[in-house]
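Task 17 of the worksheet. Students: predict the tertiary structure of the chain below and write it out as structure tokens. Keep your answer in the requested format; marks are given for formatting as well as content.
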Amino acid sequence: MIRKALICLFSMTAVGAVMAQTKWDLPAAYPASNFHTENLAQFAADIDKATGGKLKITVHANASLFKANEIKRAVQGGQAPIGEVLLANFENENPLYGADGIPFLATSYADSKRLADVQKPYLDKLLGTQGMKLLYTVAWPPQGIYVKKEIASVADMRGLKWRAYSPATGKIAELIGAQPVTIQAAELSQALATGVVESYMSSGSTGYDSKTYESIKYWYDTQAWLPKNAVIVNKKAFDALDANTQAAVLKAAADAEARGWKVSEEKNDWYKKALTDKGMKIMTPSPKLIADLKQVGSIMLADWQKKAGPDGEAMIAAYVKASAAAAKPAAAKPAAKK
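Model answer:
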């Protein structure tokens, strides 16, 4: 009798442990070997360890669960409790998502981080109204131009079949006279191989992951902008976690953000070398090409500010102020008395 009672108690305890475990699927749009996805895997592992297996997150790479443009809606609707998105993809939904897709607004890691810091409260508020919560963001390396031929100005890009993966890259195509073709990262290799696209703007990371070097031989290092990936979570799913698990998620997110930005910057030069080793020519853009692209950026910034309204104006003003403060030389310290 005692033995049966103990067996029953053990079974109930085991069932309780299983029931207490929460499993989340995390859809991501990029290959498992991409540094963003590797960072997600570490994020999931950190949470698993910190919660003693109470929360287990499975990362679904390379758009295998949802396509890139479907992930945000899946998280918002509860089809996936958590996911990774490219913020600039959703500029048409709300301009505030696309601040980091404006050419030549923030062109370095330091500038991009300042922009991310001023953008964060707006994203928190915006995502909150849609039933989601921002966990962390990580920048891609600076964006350059992949193209099949040498170019010296925007005029040389007219008529090119241009990959447009976001509203911003679609707008660039319109302004430079290229032919925009909507292609997501997971479809890029095939699109290049079949000639559906012959040029696009992206980082060294995307060029390497998609084996762009097999179809295109030139990459112009324009360092035009650094778009960000964001990991977002369904607020109901997050709120359903106990306080300790929530704290573990937030701690792992903060660690993933710091780690991701560091790795992105470290891998920037690695990707350039890797592309060179594969036969791609890394080109320094001509002054004329940079001037033309900066003019495109100015047009896009003015257009974005009109669409973004007061919040957009305030965000840009805060970013300009932060950039100006960072540019000031440190005040000279008074000489120590002898």
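Marker's comment: The mean pLDDT is 92. DSSP finds ten helices and eleven strands in the chain.
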